[in-house]
Structures are given as C-alpha cells and as structure tokens.
Amino acid sequence: MLNWYPRHRRDLPWRHTRDPYAIWLSEVILQQTRVKQGLPYYLDFITTYPTVQDLAVAPQDEVLRHWQGLGYYSRARNMHHTAQQVVQEYGGHFPGSYAELLQLRGVGQYTAAAIASFAYDEQVAVLDGNVFRVLARVFGLSQDIAVPASRKVFQQLADTLIPAEQPAEFNQAIMEFGAIQCTPQKPDCLFCPLQQQCFAFQRGLVQELPVKSKAKAARTRYFHYLVLRYADMVYMRKRGPKDIWEGLYDFALHETDAADLPAVAVVEAVENLGARMLTNRVEEPVAALRHVLSHQKVEAKFHPIWLEAPLAAEVMERTGLAPYRAAAIEELPKSILTTNYISNIKL
Ligand code: SF4
C-alpha cells in the first residue's frame, strides 16, 4: 500500500493539510458522495468558512444553501452543530484524539479515525466502504458488511495492519486503493500489486466479495404541493424535524397514498388550510417529479393555486407558511425537487 500510494494517488486539496477542521469538513462532505461531486462543495465551504468559528456563527439557512444539491441534509445540520460544539466546548480547537473526537455530534468511528490519523498521526485504522471491500477481497472475509456486527471483525483486522509509522499515509493509501484500483465493479486485477496474495483473485471470487445484503426496498410517498400564490408572492414554509429535508423550504404539502389528487380534493385541501381560492377552477398540476432518496421515493405534483386574498396571520402562524418574492425564494435552501420545479416555472 505504502509503495503503491505515492505513485497513484489523486491530488486532492484536503490531502495537503493537517488542519483537523479542513479534514473533518472534507470527510463530512465526502460521506455517501463521490469525490468529483464533493470537491466543488469542499472548495466552496473552505473558502466561505475558512475556520470552524466562521462556520459556527453562520446562519443555518445559509449553511443549508451552500449544501444544496449534496443530499442527506442531516449531515449539514450535524456539521453546523458540531462546529458550534467545537467552538463552545473546546475553545474552537478540535479534540486531539480518536476517543475524544467520538464525543462530537455526527462524528462516528470512521470520521474520528480519519481526523485522528490524518491530522494527529494516531495509529487508528479507518474503515469506509473502500476499505471494507479491499479487506474482504484480499483476506477473504465473508461477513456481511451491511450488518453492523461485522464491523468488529474488519476493524480488528485493519488494526493489525496499520503501521505505527505513517498511519495517516496507510489509511489514505488503502482508501485510495479501494477507490481507484480495487473498485466495486471492475477492479484492475490484472495490474494489481496484491494479485498473488489476494484471496478473491486467486479463487475467482472477486465479484462475490464483499458480501453485502440488499437494503430494504424504498417506499414511495406521494407529495401534492399546493403552490399558493397571491400577486407576486408565493407562500413557502420551512420543513420541520423528523422527516426528510429538515430545515429546507417548500410549499404547503398535502401527502396522500395516491399519485393523483382529484380537483375536489385540491379545493378541500386548500380550504382546510384556511385559504380562499381566486376561482374554483383547479389547474392541472404543472409538474410531476420523482425524487429518489436512499430509503424512500418521492413522487411530487405541484398544484398552482391563486388566492383571492393574502393568507391571514392566524393561518400563517398555524402552517408556518410565509409569502416570498422570487428573489428571496432564490436564496432559500431548498431540496433539488423544489429547485427543479421553481426553475421550470416563471415565478
Ligand atoms: S487482485 Fe483484484 S480483487 Fe484483489 S486486491 Fe487486487 S484489484 Fe482487488
């Protein structure tokens, strides 16, 4: 690994720093994200918020706006909270060891190990999807990597491999090896330096390893958005906790079990909100969009509703809806689904 890495590694900005803040930022952004997609986000964040203090004092809406498009928004909220925790509880300095890093919100074993080794040269092995794959293939580990209990077996093995000298280099190397040499679908076995030792290659089991059971099928949800409009205003609200897209803005939502919402049900939904339509003629929904998340699919329809009068204060308080003009909407953090809809219509 240590021979292979210097000759093959990609030149990435977070590999030129020992600053735990910058390393942590890159690791949070790169979770469940490809390097190519994450790189511009990393550059944007490190430029906008060069220190943990800068990130901690930023308004949450602004942080979510910068995160927009990366998905898994709980990562952004946790990241923001962690920055505040580092400033308030640790005087703006990241804790200096693996064990202490684990105390931070949203910092799991993987991220703590990455920061501890890359920033402090602590001898603690990282385990991400790439490392799981390399170890499973080279050593023939058949434990299901989707099962949390398997982690212990892989961690024990990885801990025996990581050298006391150059632990950071080794961790970087094995992750990079999994990312560009021992890839999931077409590993480059022909030109692999581990070919002779590789359990999977020697037995023709490369495609069988690692063992990973399938995730549960995603459930489908049907979102019917009531896009309430009055004059040049559109009513939007900030999504609450305990559901997808917490903290992002969307329209009044009527969720049902069916892909279609009959006109009469649209009228009823608007009236239940406490709003009055300008006419009782319901327009066809403008767009039907499908958005696939890791554990659920969202099928959305947007129903444009012109109001007879602005929403009453009581309705806005009860529903969280507030009027926005086009320029303000542009600045709000939104899901890709909502952003796509807005870019397709004229506000
Ligand atoms: S021989 Fe193939 S499967 Fe084995 S480590 Fe190398 S690339 Fe991965």
UniProtKB/TrEMBL annotation:
<keyword id="KW-0408">Iron</keyword>
<dbReference type="InterPro" id="IPR005760">
    <property type="entry name" value="A/G_AdeGlyc_MutY"/>
</dbReference>
<dbReference type="Pfam" id="PF14815">
    <property type="entry name" value="NUDIX_4"/>
</dbReference>
<keyword id="KW-0326">Glycosidase</keyword>
<keyword id="KW-0378">Hydrolase</keyword>
<dbReference type="InterPro" id="IPR015797">
    <property type="entry name" value="NUDIX_hydrolase-like_dom_sf"/>
</dbReference>
<dbReference type="InterPro" id="IPR011257">
    <property type="entry name" value="DNA_glycosylase"/>
</dbReference>
<dbReference type="InterPro" id="IPR023170">
    <property type="entry name" value="HhH_base_excis_C"/>
</dbReference>
<feature type="domain" description="HhH-GPD">
    <location>
        <begin position="29"/>
        <end position="180"/>
    </location>
</feature>
<protein>
    <recommendedName>
        <fullName>Adenine DNA glycosylase</fullName>
        <ecNumber>3.2.2.31</ecNumber>
    </recommendedName>
</protein>
<dbReference type="InterPro" id="IPR029119">
    <property type="entry name" value="MutY_C"/>
</dbReference>
<dbReference type="Pfam" id="PF00730">
    <property type="entry name" value="HhH-GPD"/>
</dbReference>
<keyword id="KW-0227">DNA damage</keyword>
<keyword id="KW-0004">4Fe-4S</keyword>
<dbReference type="InterPro" id="IPR044298">
    <property type="entry name" value="MIG/MutY"/>
</dbReference>
<comment type="similarity">
    <text>Belongs to the Nth/MutY family.</text>
</comment>
<dbReference type="InterPro" id="IPR000445">
    <property type="entry name" value="HhH_motif"/>
</dbReference>
<keyword id="KW-0479">Metal-binding</keyword>
<dbReference type="InterPro" id="IPR003265">
    <property type="entry name" value="HhH-GPD_domain"/>
</dbReference>
<comment type="function">
    <text>Adenine glycosylase active on G-A mispairs. MutY also corrects error-prone DNA synthesis past GO lesions which are due to the oxidatively damaged form of guanine: 7,8-dihydro-8-oxoguanine (8-oxo-dGTP).</text>
</comment>
<keyword id="KW-0411">Iron-sulfur</keyword>
<keyword id="KW-0234">DNA repair</keyword>
<dbReference type="Pfam" id="PF00633">
    <property type="entry name" value="HHH"/>
</dbReference>
